[in-house]
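Appendix B, record 7
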Amino acid sequence: MLKKRLLPIVALLCLLTLAGCSTSANKATTTSTTTNKILKDPYSDEQFLLGTYVRIRVYDEGKEAALKPAFDRVKELGDKITINQPGSEIDEVNQQAGIKPVKVSDDVYGLLKKAYEYSEDSQGGFDMAIGAITQLWRIGFDDARKPSQEEIDQALKLVDYHKIELNDQDKTVYLKEKGMIIDLGAIAKGYITDEVVKVLKKQGVTTAIVDLGGNVYVLGHSPRGKDQDWTVGIQDPNLARGSVLGTIEERDKTLVTSGIYERYLEVDGKKYHHLFDPKTGYPFDNDIASVTIITDKSIDGDGLSTAVFSMGVKKGLEYVESELNNGTEAIFVTKEDKVYVTDPIKDTFKLDKDSKYTMGDRSELK
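Structure tokens (predicted):
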């Protein structure tokens, strides 16, 4: 399923950057680049797609027309990728599991290749064949339920990305066992976000905000000036939307967050969130309340947020800093209201003085 990202980071951007989110025809110009004038109030549109609200704001004067092809791209890819309605390419692949390979479009094949890479690299935290488990629990849907242990054990036999065959020459996908289900929800919105940014750039847009239900990309500089980055608020995982626990300044970066607190199933007083461990068939159980990944590509932020979430805070921090070491950063919020960040952003991440959170001591992590 197309996973609903939990933290509406971009909802905070308008307030924090002092840049309005009006759709007014009267646009005040604040700054300019060599070719484009940058507006204080952007051209904007919001549509309910992919199971969430998709928001795009364009600040380049005269570039309002870029919104339509951007939203068209979201719809096009969403229709190809979803497993929650019949007729999508991924649905067809799943329907033909154990029967025959299915030829897919270049878009979908490229996404599947990336999903396979993350399945290999995530140390077991991400498996593109998790669908047998996610469709069993159905968390986030009206028919969500806690399955029996027997049901979970049977579904786990079908969770193994090694049983997916990708044919680069023919662009076909084959699931070796009947009942296997590919679920790209963990990285689909990241991929689509990156595609939207490509569309905007092709249309000549230099300054914009793209938000696909929490997968946020800040393009170019803030409307406040060419030397000003966007000030991005990080949602407090324990309070209502719009409540900030801290901020960080970024440009030409994506911020992707995974958390346990908004989308869950409660049974007998116990909450089961939507981030599943491919090894147990149950939600991951560790010290993380949320993790935000800051990186260049949203698909990488998606894959990493799931993979790192599975590791817990200590191993997650070590993985981002030592294994990646490529400008990717992370912000962890624990269930004990501690905040931990990767070393390169320890001076640029600003914890809100009015929040109940404190910066954690990494030496105390187990």
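Remarks on this record: The radius of gyration is 20 Å. Helices lie at 10-16, 67-81, 89-95, 106-121, 131-137, 149-156, 188-202, 298-324.
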